[in-house]
Amino acid sequence: MTQVIVNGLYLGAQYALIALGLTLIFALMNVLNFAHGQMYVLGGFVTYTVYGQLKLPFGVALLASGVTLAVVGAVFERFLFRTVIRRSLREESTMLLAAATATLLDAVILLLFGEKQRGVPKIVNGVLNTDWLIMPYDKIFVGVLAILGIAAFMAFMQFSKPGRAMRALAQDRVAAQLMGVEVDRYTMIGFAMGAMLAGVVGGLLVAATGVNSGIGGPISIKAFTMVMIGGAGVVGGAIVGGFILGMMESVGLSVLHAYGDATYLVIFVALMIFLSIRPNGLMGKPWG
Amino acid sequence: MSLKGKIAAVVGFIFIVFVVTPWLIATTGRSDLYYTLTSVALLAIAGAGVWVTFYIGRINMGQGAYALIGGYVCAILVVKYGVSFWLSLPLAGLFCAAASVLVGLPILRLRGTYFCMITLVFTEVARLSALALPITNGAKGISNIPLPGPIAVFGIVLVPDFSTLANSRLAFYFLSAGLMVACFAGLYRLVHSRMGQLCLSLQQNEELASSIGVNIANLRVIAYAISSFLGGIGGALFISISQSIYPSSFTVNDSLNFMLSCFLGGLGYVFGPIIGTFVLYFGWDFLFTTGEYQLLIYSTVLIALILVLPNGILSLRPYGWKRGT
After folding, report:
1. Is the predicted ipTM greater than 0.95, yes or no?
2. How many structural domains are present in chain B?
3. Running DSSP on this structure, what letter comes out for residue A136?
4. CB neighbour list of residue A61: distance below 8 Å, 6 or more residues apart
5. Residues of B with CB under 8 A from a CB of A
6. Which residue range(s) make up the domain with B1?
7. Rounded Cα distance, A89 and A28, in Å
8. Which range among A25-39, A192-206, B7-21, B201-215 shows the weakest confidence by mean pLDDT?
9. Is there a single domain that holds both residue B236 and residue B100?
10. Above 50 in pLDDT, residue B324?
11. pLDDT exceeds 70 at position A229
């Protein structure tokens, strides 16, 4: 039982960090970032290259993942999304663009890193083995790092100047602009930060379970699920959604493991029922 | 465009589809193009469904699910119960429409991104259900689905048995193209009917529409059912051509492609899905020669196209078409 809960927490911490990036981008720009899973995979491969191939320290590798993805995110926002939002008659066109960027990243990842499953040497060796819990140390390490990441993100959003600007933007774009917030600049920073979070989690993932080029799409779907549970565009909702999904997955896999993919079927069906009762998720603002 | 111009365009299009294209293929000997064109026609039908849901202001990314359900219903009816293909095709569509009413009643209350995400999840639900349910035969799928049989009325054979035909590809092409023309003719009629106007009012402002007495709950379920019907028909016909169906026959990627082709063709235009599907499918096939760079070039071109024409290919308006035609 403890085992299941700890596994759920470990999964949930990672998931929450992914969902945070997605929800940040959504809150700032109303863009559903389909490429989020692909960004995560790209981050994983950067860490794999820097830590696994070049043998640099893991911290440097994580930093490299974050910086690479932040640059990718900033470029996407500045040259693609901003242009389309300005030119398009309707907001939904950004969704098409997001799907296209997901394909683009998929193609780039496939060309640069191939389709093999990649892993790196363990960061921390050994397994924590007590009578109520068996957990490899590196998983604990990754889980703790993820929770630290969430805390750092929340602190940044709460207390720093860019964080305050972004919260203002999410609340009311026009009002924020009238108060002198540089909307364009902070939107770009926000998109870059969302992408960076995806990259950092990807780097954490490669250390724990390895990465391959095919998992981007499924991760995006999971990220959407978490955001829907918590409510789109709400930071607290993303964290709660991430932990709920992680816990459900962990419990489901241990209860339903005989039925294969039935866990996800149950989760998705439960989600659809939940959303028909509470369309805005747990903490989301009413839509429209 | 004047009435005469419209009639000329329709006749020209039908002429190109049913006379010029087969003639061109016969003279050049590229009979493999039949399969490609048939796929385009079927995907355009399913894409038309996505377009209908867009018309009531919802972005539907669950069309892959209905294509899969329609395919499975048709395959199970034909293989396990020996029902004629010609009967199971509309039955597959009706089953999808019925299923979509059940699914749609709760989820159509959602809007914008939420609806978009929940339909995406629904595609996954369909795939996972196909894996888990006993009647769908799990991951092994259903293969060796027989080709459509003959239709005879009072002893007169209207449609020959597809398996006795020398070129069943040609038969499938005519069938799919005919369905596509019928589907878009119906869609055009729907959009320009009273109901179409009501749907447009839903797209623009649901609260306002509701306040002047439009039954929005009813209308959106009807539109969603039409959409799913088209998806089911498209999927069912598709699997009868490939003669097999697996849980991975229609996945999230297909759902995304349906949506992409609608957007690419232009959401303000009834015939957007045809153009979008045509460009997407042929663009992808055309790039096959570039090998490993296929995906990279394809997505780059797609992004460039979105940047240049964010309102769809048809927004070029070659003959000064009005928005909404």
Report:
1. no
2. 2
3. E
4. A46, A47, A50, A51, A203
5. 59, 103, 106-107, 109-114, 116-118, 120-122, 124-125, 128-129, 131-132, 206, 252-253, 256, 259-260, 263-264, 267-268, 292-293, 295-296, 298-300, 302-303, 306-307, 310-311
6. 1-30
7. 19
8. B7-21
9. yes
10. no
11. yes
